[in-house]
Amino acid sequence: MTENSARQIKLGAVLTGAGGPGHFNTWLDPEIPADSSIDIRWYIEQARIAEEAKFDLVFIVDSQFITPDSPPHYLNRLEPFTLLSALAVSTSNIGLVATLTTSYNDPFNVARRFASLDLISGGRAGWNVVTSGDAGTAGNFSQEEHFDYDTRYGRALEHVRVAQGLWDSYEDDAFPRDRETRVFLDPAKLHRLDHRGEYFQVTGPLNVSRSPQGQPVIFQAGDSEQGRDLGATIGEGIFTHAPTLEAGLAFATDLKSRAAAKGRNPDHVLILPGISVFVGDTDDAAREIERATQLADGGFEQALAEFGRPFGWHDFRAYDLDAPFPVEALQYSERSFHTQAKQIVAFAEAGGLTLRQVVEALSSPRRTPFVGTPETVANELQRWFEAGAVDGYNIQIGHPAQFRRLVGEVLPILRERGVLRREYEGTTLRENLGLPFVQNRYTAARAAAADAADAASAPSEQAPQLVPSA
Ligand SMILES: Cc1cc2nc3c(=O)[nH]c(=O)nc-3n(C[C@H](O)[C@H](O)[C@H](O)COP(=O)(O)O)c2cc1C
Questions:
Q1: Ligand 1, residues 130, 134, 146, 152: which to mutate, most atoms within 8 A of Cβ?
Q2: What's the predicted TM-score (pTM) here?
Q3: What confidence category does residue 302 fall into, taking pLDDT thresholds of 50, 70 and 90?
Q4: Pocket of ligand 1 contains residue 363 by CB under 6 Å
Q5: Structural domains present in the chain
Q6: Residue-wise pLDDT tens digits, 336-349
């Protein structure tokens, strides 16, 4: 088996410029432009560093609802497709994954934008399917309130299926573009979808052809029962949290067995948790960098304000901090990040904690798994991977000095050990992730029908094999 065909760690770079959730002071680092989240030059620079280091993809998270207490990157950031279109022409190999909600978009527009990005980038587009965790988004889309969970996830599945149907509107050889014969389109290779579903009615066809990877790669993020089921049904990459190796392994096992139960190849469902990495000259020095970074990232007041996000941005500042945790606030999460909110409430109840204690526990410095010398970090990244807890990592890109150390000191160790690529295997995101090309469904059906016809017309060739030789 060649080095490139062995299972290797997949890497994504999560770019949150001035600072994402919990990272309120990243932007104070003099090496980060204070307006990095809206500075395309900053994104291009990061994407090129990641591409030089052979990362599989850059990952753009997104939302459409903010409050003054949202983290800096969320307050002022570029829209994902506009951003990734610029990255598509400034890079050549790295995958480009945009988060896009199925709750506040129509499948036709979504399919068209992704098909366009996929063509512009030569087959490097990926879609992180979310249902919008922020309930307040409803107010920006002419709705009184956010959808309930069943509707959110019902829409999500149908939405993705419609988009995939639209992406097959044209077969790969639909455009002869033959000047001699004056044939631009072969109309037999153009297909209308005629979808009539519970949430969407879409006639089609889409007015964009397919890219070299057939269809964009589908990622998914959402952790409830419905969320995991959606991931197991349509996800080819799963964006998740993995606080410990054991939790990661339990999640990966669950997700992959759900996928197998649906008749899918579990190797084609890649588990990529979001992680942070802290590298130092010694393990202790790295722990110190981790602690100092976490301490600098915000304070109690900031954490208390942001604490309301999973609960639909409910304002917890109105409560007595030293009274028992207000478990009744769980109701505000029902159309927001309900799974996360339930975990917080269970944690508070199990420890009999006050609101202050819960916020402190979640925001004070804590030891995360990927911290130490380059060797320690490489060991841990490899250990989780080899244990089957992950297929790779979506690495939160924070301070530039740390990104440099990751790329310059940690990744070479993994490369030396043969668990990280030295070169891109292909030019598309699918090829690099080891995911199969998605054959056009109509082409596949035509090929299957031709095979069946061949088999039916040649029975005599098979007959002798059925005659016992003696
Ligand atoms: C790791 C992770 C990342 C997510 N990223 C986003 C995001 O970028 N934008 C968004 O609107 N929702 C995001 N979500 C929210 C989900 O789409 C979903 O709405 C939310 O998690 C509630 O569903 P759940 O209870 O199934 O997790 C994310 C969820 C998870 C678990």
A1: 130
A2: 0.94
A3: very high
A4: no
A5: 3-277+370-433 (3.20.20.30), 298-363 (no CATH)
A6: 999 999 999 999 99
